Amino acid sequence: MTLKKKSYLFLASCLLSWFSFAKSADIESKNHQVSLKVDSEHSVLHADKANKTFIKVSLDAAVVENIERKPLNICLVLDKSGSMGGDKIDQARKAAISIVKRLNKDDLFSLVTYDDHIRTLIPAQPVKNADHIIKQINAIHSGGGTALFGGVSQGAAEIRKFNNEKYLNRVFLLSDGQANVGPSTPEDLERLGISLSKENIVVTTIGLGQGYNEDLMTKLALATDSLTYFVENSNDLPRIFNKELGDVMSIVSSDIQIKVELSDGVKLIRTLGRKGSIKGNTLTFDIKHLYNGQDLFTLLEVEVPATQANSTRNLANVTLTYNNLLSQKQERSLDNVSVSFSHSDEEVIASIDKQTQSDVAEYNNAMVLAQNIQYMDQGQREQAMDNIESNIVHLKQQQSTYSNRLLSVQIIELERQRDQLKSGSYDMKMRKSMNQKSFDLWNSRKVKK
Amino acid sequence: MEESYLFQQEKENKEKELQILCDQVKLFAEDRRSEVLYSLEVIPEDKLQENLEQLEQNSPMIRNAFIWSAYQGLVYPKISEVSSDEQYAFFKRYSPLLEGKIPWQKNNEIHVEKQNSQSDDLDLGYENSYRIIENTLDSVSQNFKSNYEFKQRAIEQRQLQQSRNIPIKSGWIPWFEGNRLYQLIWIQRGNLVYGVELEQMNFIATLISSFPDLGPHTQCNLVNGNNDIYHQAGQLENSKNTLDYNCSLAPALPHWEMQFKYNINHYNHLMLSTYFIIALLLIFILGGIFLLIIHSRKSFMDAQQKSDFVSNVSHELKTPLTSIRMYAELLEKQNKLTDEKKQKYVGIIINESQRLTRLVNNVLNFSRLDRGKHKYNFQVVELNAFIKTILDGQQMILEKHNIIAQIEGPSCFVKTDTDVIEQILINLIDNVCKYASVGKTLEIILIKQKDEVRIKVCDKGPGLPAKNILKIFNQFYQLDAKLTNKPEGVGLGLSICKQLLLGMQCDIICYNRTDSSGCCFEIILGDQK
Lengths: 449, 529
What we know:
By secondary structure, chain A is of the alpha/beta class. Helices cover 41% and strands 30% of the residues of chain A. The longest helix of chain A is centred in the N-terminal third of the chain and has 27 residues, at 2-28.
């Protein structure tokens, strides 16, 4: 009975794979907008014992010249609390105006300000009368508390008015202070982010000065698959806003989904970078957008069961689907990764993928930083130092074993962190820059320009 | 007394208003839950897990989904080493329920305080029976969108279940962990209980963005049991004399409250309206006084003018009468008078009696015009020649004042009342003799235009003071005695001229010459049809 069932399944999977291969071949000829590549840290593993290794799934968006971008639905949510007074609010206004000036009449723009109260200064509307909008922006003055949660809620409500296929959504949240009206824990904002993400509402968070809550801003941005920025000097605001707007303008594909189906016996230990959702032996990663020419990868640590020498084993089949915004079509591609097994240590060592190893180290560094923030928050400077030190030792070991020069970049980075920790006092500015560094490493978003 | 009654009344009204706002928020909460409940009810039994996973992944309103069996405990999500942190936290949060320690049972009361004091720090709410849910279905406020199609499908599903005799129960549990509210919505089909946990932050976010409008002078804090402010709306214009009103959002949102602060502007209104009325009264009184003064001044002036008129008329009548009487007596008593002298005296008597006739005619005309009873007698006339004859008739008086008269302009035929024209011209010539004899000139110019003929009568006298030009055609108006060396007449002449002309749709205007050498009167004659 079970045998029969299995044979049916086999037949079905054969059919399916034929189908998908036929389809992928069809797409192959058309040149993918996003190419998929799956590698493993080692292509040869130790035979006859369980191995741990990393699978790296990389996406590479091609550089397209002169893209015709999709209309945007942009909402600025600006903190106008008392602490924003003076130069900060000036620069925020400047940043907002520069955004309005770059949008065209097909784009939508809205602006919400918050202090104790939330005000929709400019309801979502096409940017037809830019002068009028700019006039209203210029009338913003600071004063009051910080109802950050309400501000984001209202911003999302403005986006929701035109939340459809036609537009790319984006909320820019600017804050310089601790949220003190409305739900204000990082977890609350993370949950808000998760629910907004389900509606395709993406929130980019920009923290200004040293008084804001970076954990909250980071979690909110991460939950919507977006970025957070620590802006120390308000003069940088217009630049950051424009950089982020430029990125949004160069989005070329959306609703990217990576499905990693682990082969029988291959067990998932952890993922680095993106959190996936797990169902059975399939891991799914959802990515909101890819920018023109963006590289992106995610890492999975797996345990491979003991296998005989000189045999090969498929580790995972990976399916990539995404919406090509230029051709308005859904595209799909497949790849897999397999390893062979050997008794020879040299062979195993020689099979290392140096880039992947270095990528793993980079993620590790991000985690070390995140852990250290927690240690330092609790005043455990020694544990933090130990943490860095032991990771440096580990990396140096790896470097000599695999003679991987790429690792030296990561070692230098850790040493720099250590020196900073040793000499500097742990203040808000340092915490913020550590957080930002960790975030940047974790969300390495490299764009070929 | 009255004030405090009004105040009470105002306060009660305001509180009713605020209570409505509270009810709106409660309805919002109930509506959101109903919406989720419908989406759960329509799930077909054989695709339960698949559908729930879909909801969990795609619905922003839903945080976690679950399936629980009376025999197996939690069926979905399976708690294992690959469970996400979120799934594990979910399991931990509801473990008393999911481990079967608390039944999914009907419990109409909420024992929040009692349950909170327990070590588990949880609050198990009540379960809605089937009928109560039905009620909420119908009571969903029209302010909030409700999906009719969804509702219909839910009802069908329910009927299907009932026909198969599978008992359906459903409810929601306000669950408190660490004093925070979590909302669990569940449906029981036989031994299976499934449902979802609401995404509380989405709930609050959408509540904030659709928060009811508070209106003026009202502020509201939305708070939970710990007095954490979830939302602040509205602004008070002044923080003095504020009143408080709190309303509980239980049972829709247990322990949550809306805390209002508001100003009653009733006093202000009263004060304002009082001030307003006083101001209005003052304006009326002052206005009345002003009108009275104007009126009495006018009557005074009228009386003054009339008495002037009477004395003028008496004087004017008396002067020729005196002359006539004097020369008549001379003729009677003095027999030795030469013929020449007799002739002269008779001439004077005739002249003076003519003057008297003119005067009486003026007064009569005036009273006729005043009553609108003047009769016009139109005939076609050649003006140039007609005016020349008038000038000839006035030659004597003109010579007496050393005034040389001349007439210019084309010959023009016009249909008009010649008596009126004659009377006006004589009046004007008379005025020139009286007031402008120093100029020694009288020019009459005829101007022919398309539809009208203008007769300009100009002198080279002292001109008219600017402020008097407008009044010159008024009844009883005379130039100040200081400006005229010899006040004569009764102040009716020009007024009568004007009235006569207006009566036949013509007009007369007056202006000083631009080179300030005397003034001109201009008679504008339209052709009479």
